Description:
The protein is mostly helical. It has helices spanning 3-10, 16-34, 43-54, 79-94, 103-110, 136-148, 152-177, 184-191, 194-200, 206-224, 231-247, 270-294, 316-325, 328-351, 362-378, 386-411, 428-441, 453-477; strands at 61-63, 72-78, 119-123, 352-353, 358-359. The protein has one domain (33-477). The chain has 18 helices and 5 strands. The strands form 2 sheets. Strands 1-2-3 form a 3-stranded antiparallel beta sheet.
Amino acid sequence: xxxxxxxxxxxxxxxxxxxxxxxxxxxxxxxxxxxxxxxxxxxxxxxxxxxxxxxxxxxxxxxxxxxxxxxxxxxxxxxxxxxxxxxxxxxxxxxxxxxxxxxxxxxxxxxxxxxxxxxxxxxxxxxxxxxxxxxxxxxxxxxxxxxxxxxxxxxxxxxxxxxxxxxxxxxxxxxxxxxxxxxxxxxxxxxxxxxxxxxxxxxxxxxxxxxxxxxxxxxxxxxxxxxxxxxxxxxxxxxxxxxxxxxxxxxxxxxxxxxxxxxxxxxxxxxxxxxxxxxxxxxxxxxxxxxxxxxxxxxxxxxxxxxxxxxxxxxxxxxxxxxxxxxxxxxxxxxxxxxxxxxxxxxxxxxxxxxxxxxxxxxxxxxxxxxxxxxxxxxxxxxxxxxxxxxxxxxxxxxxxxxxxxxxxxxxxxxxxxxxxxxxxxxxxxxxxxxxxxxxxxxxxxxxxxxxxxxxxxxxxxxxxxxxxxxxxxxxxxxxxxxx
Length: 484
């Protein structure tokens, strides 16, 4: 036995799933407790939708006369909650204020009870199209808060906590599915991206969206690695395929990956394997079409949430007609958008979040890029069939184009030359899929003779999150950029 063998045996071997839970819980709780009330991205709209679901309303209501833009979709919320939302809107949206939070005022309003004798109609058209599935954790927390007559602040913290625990549980399952593969470290890094942890720690539809997609992609990666699924995993995969289009219909294109999983990973009987994959895809398409038809009228109302006067020039149905006659308008707008804003999307994908426009430190960005590189470097090198390679890259391209197309129709002025409202975090799932594709096709492997790559990955992620939290704390509570 030589010295290298002894050193290798002495190195600690980290379990990705366990470390993920610890890191996500610590830093997630930081954001749960230190993000000012409803300062998360679109949290004002999402809490209203979650409250509506907590009362048993599956669909949002059509409103006709709600200031300032005359309607949209929404519902009734407690007057106390509306008071808090109105203050946040004034504090961060109307004035364009970015900087230190007025904590005294938030604490004062936060002491009001969630239960109010008076209710107010409130429009939240951007959250109205979302399925109740993505709000189950926060809606359950709000229901408990209503029964116990919690204050607004206690309700928000409880709902955020339920969101965080749901995300941690789902990604933990994804890492356990890949427990016998080193590719799990790629999922580990993506699951702990600053933007993913921040979104998991507020009331938003993105929490379960990110978690469910990471779980689905973990199943896909296991299949491409030719690891046989257990019966329980097949059942979970089928359920995930059913739910995925409900958490975010835009990502339904990912379900096409089901068709390219090697047959032997599902069953030794090719016919049974084909039936399973067909059922999974059909289930996904059915839920996608059903929910899309049920909520199709909400598409035209999303524009009402756009700040400024741009919303007046956004007309989805008219935009669709324009594209039917001349689809090249969108192609040109997409190319121009990518040329102008591609770097911004990449940075946002790693960490740009909150109504206060917070961006992660540059050092954190570099650390995460390096961690992603190292995790890809230690992953198994497999040889994908040509058809599988082609399918993955086309699904990535189709998914990214689909995101831009959705935003062009729903949130961009008619015939505009730039696609508006697209945010980098929307591409997070495709980052994982792209990294896996690159890993499978690049025949290089990092040497781990003189260091433990798992320790390096965890260290870079933890340091990156510490720097992120430090900057977030300073910007939010000590660095006033606008009026106090």
